[in-house]
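Record 1 of the preview.
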Amino acid sequence: MRAEGLTAKVFSVVLAGWNVSLLSQAATAQTIDLCPEVDAYVSLSKSARLWVQADRTREEGSPVQSEIGPSLQLSLKPLLKLRQLTERQPDKFKSRTLNLTIGYRYLQSAGNVTENRIVLEASPRFPLVWKILVTDRNRGELRWINGGTSWRYRNRLTMEREVSVGSYAFTPYIRGEGYFDSNFNKWSATALIAGIVFPFKKHFELEPTFQHMNQTGGRANQQVETLGLTLSMYF
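->
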């Protein structure tokens, strides 16, 4: 496939996901949030790729928002043990000991609140016993929200293990994430996430998730639960 055609295909699919997130934003009840997501990864070299994301998100202290933006991801060389644990998965960057990401996100809520965000990530990854894979994502965000400036640090620890049923393999995982927000000058939210990654047709993944978040930045604690479904495409 020519580069021009591939790029057009990637952006058309991601924009379709953006439109879905905008439509679902207006239709969801208050008790639980539904957050669809589309991610497209385009390989630039063995150690670099473009990542374009479109989703509907509910983050610490924020209303439901639609999010879109590109990132550049860089990685170290694969580790043999990590490659053995992830060889049947479409995401080849999971075999790398360290991934670095720099990106931009534009977010918009139903109340016309807009945010521009610069994202920096460092994600070391290492194997444990019993074929468990651990990823420690460290994420810094510079945020411009309706003219105001703030920053936020997010630490997310993921434990996953590939499970085989016959010739098919899928990957269940659990995650814990903490948010330190300069607006509150403290750890203002924690989240527990469970999900399963189902690969199909070699270059695609479907990932249902459930998230329980405890928001403590305001005067009263708030509990938020989210159901997510992510489509990931690797080119």
